[in-house]
Design brief:
There is one protein chain. It contains five helices and eight strands. By secondary structure, it is α/β, with parallel strands linked by helices. The chain has a domain of about 80 residues. Strands 1, 3, 4, 5, 6 and 7 form a six-stranded mixed sheet that branches. The longest helix has 15 residues. The chain is elongated.
Length: about 160
Amino acid sequence: MAKFRKKKSGGQQAINTASLPDIVFMLLFFFMVSTTMKEVDLNVIVKPAQATELVKLEKKELVTFIYVGVPAKKYQSLYGSEPRIQLNDQFSTVADIQSYIAQSRDNMSEANQSKMIVSIKADKECPMGIITDIKQALRKAAALKLNYSAAEMVADR
């Protein structure tokens, strides 16, 4: 005669982890696509001027930045406390601007080269003489579309 045994309570069933690698790779792919990397480390201190009528630039890939300001504290012993020009991640002079603009144009597609915009991010305490020198160098480099970056003015209450 056959014996019938009662099932012993063995606890909970194991969770199926077969789809776990798929989920991990989907999350990894999502964060890789949606994350933007910081392009430039600022070596100068830039406190932008404030303005009321601001327009946001539409296509960031067309914009080339020139930073002007006092060197950060870790660079002041080497470069002093006078306003300096930063192109990409290094300090530069006005004479370097033409080659910087030419290099930026070469990195763009041919269709976008004529649409290139140069944005000057200057400290509000920066002397206008440096900005004038930069504008003259940009004229020589045929970069005539110019933008000044500013912060939105906060209304006093």
